[in-house]
Amino acid sequence: MTDDHSRPAEAEPVLPPRPRSMDPQEIGFTPQRPVGWLAPLLLLSTGLRALLAILFGAYLDKRELQNSLDGEWFDHSATADGEMWLDYVADLGDGFHATYSVAWLLAQPHLEIDGASLPRGRLLLMGGDQVYPLASGDGYENRMKGPYRAALPEPPAGGPRPTLFALPGNHDWYDGLTAFLRLFARRKDGHIGGWRTQQRRSYFAVKLPGDWWLFAMDEQFGAYIDDPQLLYFEKAAKHVGPQDRIILMTPSPKWVKAAADPKEYDATDYFIRTILAPTGANVRVLVSGDLHHYARYSGPDRQLITCGGGGAYLLATHQLPDKLTVPPEETLTRSASRSREYALQTRFPSAADSRRMSWGVFRRVPARNPGFATMLGIIHTLTMLAMAGAASQGGNIQRLFTIPLGLMVVIILAGTVLFAQPPGAAFANHARHWLFGLGHGFAQIGLAILGTWVWLQLPAHDWPWPGPLVVAAVIYGPIIGFLSTQLCALYLLIAGQFRVNVNELFAGQGIEDHKSFLRLHIAADGSLTIHPIGIDKICRKWKADPAGAPDTSWLNPDAPLVPHRIEPPIQLT
């Protein structure tokens, strides 16, 4: 066991001057733009990293090595008044404005929301994907650590120092947890701004006041739970009794994903059955990020909460099922827990707002991803030149099967099929992904045929070489690139209605608004109240506060940043 007062007092450091601007030289990091998820090089590199992590992740799995690290659980149950406030945030390390908007709110001593004053959390729980798109030291520094240090530069004056615990998500895993462990599980200099870091592994158990416990399990891409982790939690669970209540943090809301692929929930159910159930304690809350919205399912025994609104692009909510059966009745696990039904209670944004924002794909995809439009323009221009060349050759067979044209057709079809059928697609849905991918590919080929016909009507195609190539690159390429992007946007809008490429439909738009986090309160009587906090509009303009106190934010919003309750407080006893 490691308690809340286990570290010796640190000498007061000499504080550097507070920043006077957002100059990276003054704030110590470079604010980042939101990730352009359809950028060609990013699509390629992220896809390869994800594939390598899935194929070889077991060989790079540092969880086995964590067995040599400190394996104690943490005791934060002793408070002066028997109460505790906690904050939960996930999916946060993306563009600066969205990430810092949430960090700034989390760092404030109190939030005034709907007439209630909610104090800052004594614990800050990060639920996964603390950096995008790939884990690295610079990525964490610029997209997560820097913004959170700027929000709470020093420990609060006159009060206990808040503690930060972080659970890795799939993006934290892409380097095998190397950068994650260096940042969150280091013994020396263990703090991020005013928050101290205490964990020694990528998973943790924390005893809370009022007979509550927090367990945070680390699944490597949902594959399995390693033996050192099971032994760690078995040791912690020996201190849990039938009178206790449990909050379980997971890297991904497997209860939602299991609706399409029943095996997704198997590891979570195994953990509950083998580690938590024997204690007799009640698992009252499951909470996760990974899906970038807020959604709560309620059942007779527990609340299932997804809250991934810490900074990453918004994800649709109108595709969420109205009811879930957890564990799924289709699971092949012979000793699975008894299935229970959970009903969708609340989502943020609303289903109507989510559908409305889907239509923004035509405007936002080309604006947010100019490299994607350029790539499509190049592919279509090369395809048009191949088609025009084939049309000027001999017989029909030779025209249709010239090597350049055949190569471009294969590239288009392969690209659209791979785009529609990511590696994580459930097996039962593969046919649907293939059909949509091929349909999108043939639509793009049809556009290429139309573009070739128009090209052949123009005098430029008969000009001496390299005149046609110059005209194609300067005029035809940008026009066909825009049209091809609009066709792709139409595909995403239609495919999204059938739960294909829903993530890409919203990732391509990069919507930064509609953020969310949780503020939880354990009262002296042991009751737990969950306050889901939403932010309709993030702040995009900040002003430095060089004269502020050492523990106040370096940068403050130029216009009021207004949080609100997503739904009434959720009370559990």
TrEMBL record:
Signal peptide: none annotated. Residues 1-10 have a biased composition (Basic and acidic residues). InterPro entries: Metallo-depent_PP-like. It comes from the Bacteria. The keyword Membrane applies. The chain crosses the membrane at residues 37-60, 372-391, 403-422, 434-456, 468-494. Keywords: Membrane, Transmembrane, Transmembrane helix. The keyword Membrane applies. Residues 1-26 are annotated as: Disordered. PANTHER family: CALCINEURIN-LIKE METALLO-PHOSPHOESTERASE SUPERFAMILY PROTEIN. This is Metallophosphoesterase. It comes from Paractinoplanes globisporus.
